[in-house]
Design brief:
Elements (H helix, E strand, L loop, with lengths): L13 E4 L8 E5 L6 H4 L11 E5 L3 E4 L7 E4 L6 H23 L4 E6 L1 H12 L6 E5 L9 H8 L3 E7 L7 H13 L4 E6 L7 H9 L4
Parallel strand pairs: 2-3, 2-6, 6-7, 7-8, 8-9
Antiparallel strand pairs: 1-3, 4-5
């Protein structure tokens, strides 16, 4: 048996809030495992007055319940992982390029939640985008990224690390490991901790968005 690959064209879906004509900044916000972009974007409704907030959806969808009533999306699994990583890096690069054509050369900011933390970290490390701010919320940095790759990816942007004290999926040890890996890579980050669980906290979310005029 021989494994081979074939590049194909497919349609990706994204949802957005805000008016591209008046937006002073672009935020690309990346959902976690098993979520859909349109529901994830609901948490950002109050922040879209003068921003374009865009939620791309993972390329692989699946039923999340036994009754096949609920659908979620994922960015990748361990199966054929290198090709899936390359695909979502290219996807996010293409999305960013399209948004730049629509909005102009406005500042880019990025948020990754849960599985989205690894997704946006790989994108910034391997893709073309260079955001002014990146928020890594409730997830882990990809294990394969070296200190040199992290330094190159994050040295020119502000980095927020966010953790919920009651997060049932991501323990505090993973959050502290993110802090230490960035420190060893020479990256200064801001740590924000809130009392909730594996969710987006509106108060902390507002702080991240409003920092440095983002």
């Amino acid at each position: 048996m021989t494994e081979r690959h074939l590049k194909v064209q497919r349609t990706a879906r994204y949802h957005q809030l805000g008016d591209p004509a008046t937006a002073r900044a672009i935020w690309i916000v990346v959902h976690g495992y098993g979520q859909l972009a349109r529901f994830f974007l609901n948490s950002f409704n109050e922040l879209a007055n003068d921003r374009l907030i865009v939620a791309p959806e993972g390329l692989s969808r699946f039923y999340t319940d036994a009754a096949h009533q609920r659908v979620g999306a994922t960015w990748m699994t361990r199966e054929d992982r290198e090709e899936e990583i390359a695909d979502h890096v290219a996807y996010l690069d293409a999305l960013h390029g399209l948004l730049m054509l629509e909005v102009g050369n406005k500042p880019l900011h990025v948020l990754g939640f849960s599985q989205g933390v690894a997704t946006v970290s790989r994108w910034i490390a391997m893709g073309k985008a260079r955001p002014a701010r990146i928020v890594l919320w409730g997830g882990s940095l990809p294990p394969e990224l070296t200190a040199a790759q992290l330094q190159l990816a994050f040295s020119e942007c502000a980095v927020d690390l966010v953790h919920g004290k009651q997060d049932e999926l991501v323990p505090e040890a993973a959050f502290r490991n993110n802090e230490e890996r960035l420190r060893l890579a020479g990256i200064t980050s801001r740590s924000l901790v809130f009392p909730g669980g594996h969710t987006l906290d509106p108060v902390i979310l507002g702080r991240c968005f409003n920092s440095a005029g983002a």
